[in-house]
Amino acid sequence: TPLDRIRNFSIIAHIDHGKSTLADRLIQRTGGLTDREMSAQVLDNMDIEKERGITIKAQTVRLNYRAKDGLDYELSLMDTPGHVDFAYEVSRSLAACEGALLVVDAAQGVEAQTLANVYQSIEHDHEIVPVINKIDLPAAEPDKVKKEIEDIIGISAEDAVLASAKSGIGIDEVLEAIVTRIPPPKGDREAPLKAMLVDSWYDPYLGVVILVRVVEGVLRKGQEIKFMATGTRHLVDRVGCMRPKIEQLTELAAGEIGFITAQIKEVSQTAVGDTITDAKKPTAEALPGFKTVQPVVFCGLFPVDAADFEKLRDSLYKLRLNDASFSFEAESSAALGFGFRCGFLGLLHLEIIQERLTREYDLDLITTAPSVVYKIQLAHGKGELDLHNPADMPDVMQIASIDEPWIEATIYVPDEYLGSLLKLCQDRRGIQKNLTYVSGRAQITYELPLNEVVFDFYDRLKSISRGYASFDYHQIGYREGDLVKMSIMVNAEPVDALSMIVHRSTAETRGRGMCERLKDLIPRHLFKIPVQAAIGGKVIARETIAAMRKDVTAKCYGGDASRKRKLLDKQKEGKKRMREYGSVQIPQEAFIAALRMG
Ligand code: GDP
Ligand code: MG
């Protein structure tokens, strides 16, 4: 296809504003699917995605469209993941396109996540076509939303397309806008091959499938290619595109988006953002913007039943086949036995993996407190240490300082919930940077330590605002903090899984809350159980779980005082033995529940 007949675009939207519905509608209108095939949403194909209404893995579809000018166009629709945890994948997908449809719900207006994505799109010099969706709703206010787009985002919304993806209104207008407003790609087809690895996934029949955007040259079946960042070579055995069904092609030329397979066994061998070139006639320079994604949130996953350890390992291997962005290594804990320390791109990513392990692999798991990565400057110039697990924290004497990751968060919230929201951010050590009002809603920018966000910030935000607040963030680097390791001791034994790194100013409140919750969560035993929170040996909070009293003297009828005393002594001894050697039974729910802050 000649360059001027190609259009590559993505769809940007806040969750639930109608991205997937619009995509399906475009596929249907251009003939990619029959009505029956349309019945299920095509682009979101995992159960969890469907339930949560988010797109986890990007999918791409090629559409053929005969425009009003009578010419045939090849449109590539790139679906981008819809969550901040996958920001890098989003940035690569956007880099593969020349324009974007900005879908905004006509009743909801612009939300935090719309913004984050639209700014990235602007950074990639995209032509942005606003689409005001759901105009069929009685609550739709397209004019108000147009004004919001102009005021908040700062792009013209005069020519916004008014649409209802659900009822099929405005779909032709969207297609025409793609052809007339989004520029065609550029690229020299005679130059050596230069293509971007946009995404990859594991297919049980095809092996690893790689989504590519060819920037220069031509990618052919049978060609020997080289991944510039990873340095490996492969033979291309399939070239094609998705409509959304797979269609094999002989080549993909500059400007085109499609997929290849090259007998690759694991997605970990393919790095998103890498440059693919011809092994024999390589391009001089790799594409800009490549980076290796690093997990930012870590936690331990332990099987409730120790016998499930192997099963957990196999399941983690299987999940990793399709997701190279999470990591795991074996770990053992005195309290929880054998399990794995896992790293994730963010909290949602953690939840997705945890949920898949439970649901698809039928595993009962204990999850330990999520932790961010701290940078510890060791004393006496002994260098720097990345700390992923609070249990590995060196002794205070060996630490010069601790740095923690910070984020900048953008929050949108209706006026009435503003007060409680500001309090929440303040309680989490937030630094307010900005507060403005746009159409009855406050837009707040806060700098927050990531550590204060990974626990239950998002849940709290949603419950404070009855679900109306929206939240988005990006990392802004490391800052020194007065951080300490808080250990939790149950019956004088430290419980690794519950130890966490906290700011000194919040340690006592956190410690007290934790002890209070544990007191209710751990059932009574035959002996008294102290529950303590401590910082470096100093107890900062304490609760006691009273003993279940078994009255051993009940059977002695009065009289014989010495016999009674003997029995009591024996019981005391028994208690002592239990305290010394006995182990406390902590129920599984206690671990997760204890980590939720009140
Ligand atoms: P996404 O999260 O942006 O992909 O949103 P979806 O396409 O999954 O849509 C979210 C919800 O909005 C679904 O229940 C859709 O049926 C509904 N929806 C999408 N478009 C429209 C529309 O034009 N009008 C109405 N009334 N509902 C819509
Ligand atoms: Mg969707």
From TrEMBL:
<comment type="similarity">
    <text>Belongs to the GTP-binding elongation factor family. LepA subfamily.</text>
</comment>
<dbReference type="GO" id="GO:0045727">
    <property type="term" value="P:positive regulation of translation"/>
</dbReference>
<dbReference type="InterPro" id="IPR035654">
    <property type="entry name" value="LepA_IV"/>
</dbReference>
<feature type="binding site">
    <location>
        <begin position="16"/>
        <end position="21"/>
    </location>
    <ligand>
        <name>GTP</name>
    </ligand>
</feature>
<dbReference type="GO" id="GO:0043022">
    <property type="term" value="F:ribosome binding"/>
</dbReference>
<feature type="domain" description="Tr-type G">
    <location>
        <begin position="4"/>
        <end position="186"/>
    </location>
</feature>
<dbReference type="GO" id="GO:0005525">
    <property type="term" value="F:GTP binding"/>
</dbReference>
<dbReference type="InterPro" id="IPR035647">
    <property type="entry name" value="EFG_III/V"/>
</dbReference>
<dbReference type="GO" id="GO:0005886">
    <property type="term" value="C:plasma membrane"/>
</dbReference>
<dbReference type="Pfam" id="PF00679">
    <property type="entry name" value="EFG_C"/>
</dbReference>
<keyword id="KW-0342">GTP-binding</keyword>
<dbReference type="Pfam" id="PF06421">
    <property type="entry name" value="LepA_C"/>
</dbReference>
<dbReference type="InterPro" id="IPR005225">
    <property type="entry name" value="Small_GTP-bd"/>
</dbReference>
<protein>
    <recommendedName>
        <fullName>Elongation factor 4</fullName>
        <ecNumber>3.6.5.n1</ecNumber>
    </recommendedName>
</protein>
<keyword id="KW-0378">Hydrolase</keyword>
<dbReference type="InterPro" id="IPR000795">
    <property type="entry name" value="T_Tr_GTP-bd_dom"/>
</dbReference>
<keyword id="KW-1003">Cell membrane</keyword>
<dbReference type="GO" id="GO:0003746">
    <property type="term" value="F:translation elongation factor activity"/>
</dbReference>
<dbReference type="InterPro" id="IPR013842">
    <property type="entry name" value="LepA_CTD"/>
</dbReference>
<keyword id="KW-0251">Elongation factor</keyword>
<dbReference type="InterPro" id="IPR004161">
    <property type="entry name" value="EFTu-like_2"/>
</dbReference>
<feature type="binding site">
    <location>
        <begin position="133"/>
        <end position="136"/>
    </location>
    <ligand>
        <name>GTP</name>
    </ligand>
</feature>
<dbReference type="Pfam" id="PF03144">
    <property type="entry name" value="GTP_EFTU_D2"/>
</dbReference>
<dbReference type="GO" id="GO:0097216">
    <property type="term" value="F:guanosine tetraphosphate binding"/>
</dbReference>
<keyword id="KW-0472">Membrane</keyword>
<dbReference type="InterPro" id="IPR027417">
    <property type="entry name" value="P-loop_NTPase"/>
</dbReference>
<comment type="similarity">
    <text>Belongs to the TRAFAC class translation factor GTPase superfamily. Classic translation factor GTPase family. LepA subfamily.</text>
</comment>
<keyword id="KW-0547">Nucleotide-binding</keyword>
<keyword id="KW-0648">Protein biosynthesis</keyword>
<dbReference type="Pfam" id="PF00009">
    <property type="entry name" value="GTP_EFTU"/>
</dbReference>
<dbReference type="InterPro" id="IPR000640">
    <property type="entry name" value="EFG_V-like"/>
</dbReference>
<comment type="function">
    <text>Required for accurate and efficient protein synthesis under certain stress conditions. May act as a fidelity factor of the translation reaction, by catalyzing a one-codon backward translocation of tRNAs on improperly translocated ribosomes. Back-translocation proceeds from a post-translocation (POST) complex to a pre-translocation (PRE) complex, thus giving elongation factor G a second chance to translocate the tRNAs correctly. Binds to ribosomes in a GTP-dependent manner.</text>
</comment>
<dbReference type="InterPro" id="IPR006297">
    <property type="entry name" value="EF-4"/>
</dbReference>
<dbReference type="InterPro" id="IPR038363">
    <property type="entry name" value="LepA_C_sf"/>
</dbReference>
<dbReference type="GO" id="GO:0003924">
    <property type="term" value="F:GTPase activity"/>
</dbReference>
<dbReference type="InterPro" id="IPR031157">
    <property type="entry name" value="G_TR_CS"/>
</dbReference>
